[in-house]
Design brief:
The structure holds two protein chains of two kinds.
Chain A (H helix, E strand, L loop, with lengths): L4 H12 L3 E7 L5 H14 L3 E5 L10 H12 L4 H14 L5 E5 L1 H7 L1 H11 L3 E4 L8 H9 L3 E2 L1 E3 L8 H5 L6 E4 L12 H12 L6 E4 L5 H8 L4 E4 L1 H9 L11 H18 L7
Parallel strand pairs in A: 1-2, 1-9, 2-3, 3-4, 4-5, 6-7, 7-8, 8-9
Helix pairs in contact in A: 2-4, 2-12, 3-11, 4-6, 6-7, 10-12, 11-12
Chain B lengths: L15 E2 L2 E5 L5 H15 L2 H15 L5 E3 L1 H7 L3 E5 L10 H14 L4 E6 L3 H12 L4 E6 H6 L1 H9 L3 E5 L6 H14 L4 E3 L10 H9 L1 H14 L5 E5 L4 H7 L9 E9 L10 H4 L1 E5 L1 E6 L24 H8 L4 E6 H15 L5 H13 L8 E5 L8 H7 L5
Parallel strand pairs in B: 4-14, 5-6, 5-8, 6-7, 9-10, 9-14, 10-13
Antiparallel strand pairs in B: 1-2, 2-12, 3-4, 11-12
Classes of the chains: A alpha/beta, B alpha/beta.
């Protein structure tokens, strides 16, 4: 099978000897047009991989910032079809930056997993992170995703015991998502020693790149985690920049995309400052 | 579920009832949920666990609850002989405590240090806070901010019992949102905390475990009706939100082909208005709160807010075993509106001197519909799963009365 964008991107990062920045935004936040602007600005600002949230009414693994972002998008009329449309438009200008859709299983189940994977692949989606779909229940999505060359990204948590790692990582592709805290997104700060221990445990079971997410908020923190993982995921702190661009009367500051890009550039500088030994 | 001759074999080892059930949770929770399953399996096989539970059910909860022949209601309806299973006479006034006792005992057995729970009307919250107090464990109850406002007496009760009530402001601030936040809280303190789910829903093993703890209702009915009538009942009726009181009544009878079963969902303002809580009648297969089941949702898979005058039925989903029994046509699922429930509430108060909770008032509304056309020797048992004291303010408002 030919390598997908995710594998190519992490291979390139390894050659450069640096860690990737993975940025999360919620599709359709604050509305479809401005989300498209924000999305378009991410690669130039330093995002190596883009996670695009598929809004869901009941995001039970997300903290307040990502919950609010999803609700803003739903209120503005976001649908799964529009989310795939965002990716399709993005791909007309950028053929290299991997896009991973992140969300919950129900909207995909209603769309139809096979039709969803077909449409997602056609739009240019490279991976899926479905938070409430553990490997035990993943088959209905894993099979059509594999057929379409979409990586179903597996999550490993600090609570995942070693005996369970083979089950979680069975059939994993793309990268492995290390959940750095026991908590929902953006609600606690990742502790470097604990992250290092978790990543080391994961690496004993897979050669896939490991991206670390949940609980990384600042450029300095991103720099610290970048010494440990192959990718650093920032979500809540980015969507909070969108939230801050919305006035009390609901009007969105015209420079919201520039503000988000500015923060992403700071994060990218942090991640790129981390010292890592180049992989030969 | 390979044995097609039984309806009692589910779930399978992965927690599935046909296409329903399962374990749709974040990886952070998976190891813990597997641990709950293991611990529950061990507890179930331990005679000492059962014996201790029986002790508390008898001396603390007040079981067995009576099976009462509702003579005046029977006369009034002029058909089937109507019995009430009086689970509203349990300590804390509803069937919820049967399950809380079992789960908190399990939590203690697992060495957990604290209990969290979600609640809608507050009945499950009160029952959880009660058992947590009994066993000296700290307890946090997640409750939608809207429900905190409209169920103040229960909020106060929980606080008196030493529980911390956490108002949930996300979403519409009702039961569904309370469950989201309880799950979020659980993820954040997974090592030392036990999540006590109030109904036959959530990730496996909860639907089966809660059913097992509630099955005492049906087991007692079997003994009591044999003593009273010398034979099994012909029809069982129960209301259904998540569906724990109905599963508890039905489960011991599922393999008795002569026993018909009817479960009553909340039709709110009417199914046709879209403002209801009837997941089986108005919903379709989806995934929420850890299980696959019938859900109220829009075309894009976003979960809809439910509506019912009864806060305990105000949930857009239903236990996965009910979804399966519905598809297999073993149980008949019907609905009753807010108005029908209110009428049944008032009828029961005047004819039987019992204020039913608004939840079983839905079951009673169905009894009113079906009993008159049934023969006089037809034995009908309805689960009076909660008492109506908590609902007097809601009923007064609905009837336009000032109290």
């Amino acid at each position: 099978m030919s390598q997908g964008r995710i594998a190519r991107r992490f291979a390139a990062l390894a050659r450069e000897g640096r860690t990737g920045l993975v940025t999360f935004i919620s599709a359709g936040d604050p509305d479809l047009a401005r989300c498209a602007d924000i999305l378009a600005g991410l690669p130039a600002a330093g995002a190596d991989v883009i996670e695009l949230g598929m809004p869901f009414s009941d995001p039970m693994a997300d903290g307040p910032a990502v919950q609010a972002a999803g609700l803003r998008a739903l209120k503005a009329g976001q649908t799964m079809a529009k989310t795939l449309g965002l990716v399709r438009d993005f791909r007309t200008r950028d053929g290299d930056t991997p896009i991973v859709l992140m969300g919950y299983f129900n909207p995909i189940l209603q769309y139809g997993p096979e039709r969803f994977c077909r449409d997602a692949a056609a739009a240019g989606v490279d991976g899926l992170i479905i938070v409430d779909l553990p490997p035990e229940e993943a088959e209905p999505l894993a099979t059509p995703a594999a057929e379409q060359g979409i990586d179903l990204i597996r999550l490993v948590a600090p609570t995942t015991p070693d005996w369970r790692m083979p089950k979680v990582l069975e059939g994993a592709s793309g990268f492995v998502y290390a959940v750095s805290i026991t908590g929902v997104t953006g609600t606690a700060l990742a502790v470097e020693e604990q992250v290092a221990a978790l990543v080391a445990r994961i690496r004993r079971h897979t050669d896939l790149p490991v991206a670390v997410g949940f609980g990384i908020n600042t450029p300095a923190q991103a720099a610290g985690i970048a010494r440990i993982g192959d990718g650093v995921v920032v979500g809540s702190a980015i969507v909070r920049r969108v939230e801050q661009a919305i006035g009390p009367d609901g009007t969105v500051a015209p420079d919201v995309a520039r503000r988000v890009a500015g923060f992403v550039a700071e994060l990218a500088a942090g991640v790129r400052s981390a010292e890592r030994a180049p992989v030969s | 579920m390979s044995n097609v001759n039984t309806f009692r074999a589910g779930p399978d080892e992965r927690g599935h009832f046909g296409p329903y059930g399962g374990r749709y949770v974040a990886e952070t929770l998976m190891p813990l949920i597997l641990a709950v399953e293991r611990a529950y399996g061990e507890a179930k096989a331990d005679p000492a666990f059962r014996a201790e539970m029986d002790h508390y059910l008898t001396h603390y909860v007040g079981r067995p609850s009576p099976l009462y022949f509702a003579e005046r209601l029977t006369e009034h309806l002029g058909g089937a002989k109507v019995y009430f299973k009086r689970d509203e006479l349990n300590h804390t006034g509803a069937h919820k405590i049967n399950n809380c006792l079992g789960q908190v005992m399990l939590a203690r057995r697992m060495g957990k240090k604290r209990i969290i729970a979600e609640t809608g009307a507050g009945q499950h919250g009160v029952a959880t806070a009660t058992i947590a107090a009994l066993f000296g464990m700290p307890c946090q109850v997640y409750m939608g901010a809207t429900d905190v406002e409209r169920q103040k007496p229960n909020v106060f009760r929980m606080r008196l019992l030493g529980a911390e009530v956490v108002p949930v402001t996300s979403g519409a601030g009702t039961l569904k949102d309370a469950m989201n936040d309880a799950l979020r809280a659980w993820v954040a303190q997974v090592e030392d905390t036990f999540y006590c789910i109030g109904t036959v829903a959530g990730p496996h093993p909860y639907p089966a475990m809660v059913r097992d703890f509630q099955a005492v209702i049906g087991e007692e009915v079997r003994e009591q009706i044999m003593a009273a009538e010398g034979r099994l009942p012909d029809t069982l009726v129960a209301c259904i939100g998540g569906g724990s009181n109905a599963m508890g009544l039905f489960y011991p009878f599922l393999d008795e082909p002569s026993v018909a079963m009817t479960a009553v969902e909340a039709a709110g303002h009417g199914i046709e208005t879209g403002q209801h809580a009837a997941s089986l009648t108005g919903g379709r297969l989806g995934v929420l709160h850890g299980n696959a089941t019938y859900l109220l949702q829009d075309d894009d898979g976003q979960i809809l807010e439910a509506h019912s005058i009864s806060a305990g039925l105000d949930y857009p989903g239903i236990g996965p075993e009910h979804s399966w029994l519905h598809d297999r046509k073993r149980v008949s699922y019907v609905s009753a509106t807010d108005t029908e429930a209110l009428e049944a509430f008032q009828l029961c108060a005047r004819l039987e001197g019992i204020l039913p909770a608004l939840e079983p008032s839905h079951a009673l509304a169905q009894v009113r519909k079906m009993a008159p056309s049934l023969p006089r020797d037809h034995l009908l048992v309805m689960n009076m799963c909660g008492r109506g004291d908590k609902d007097v303010f809601t009923v007064a408002a609905a009837l336009g009365m000032d109290i």
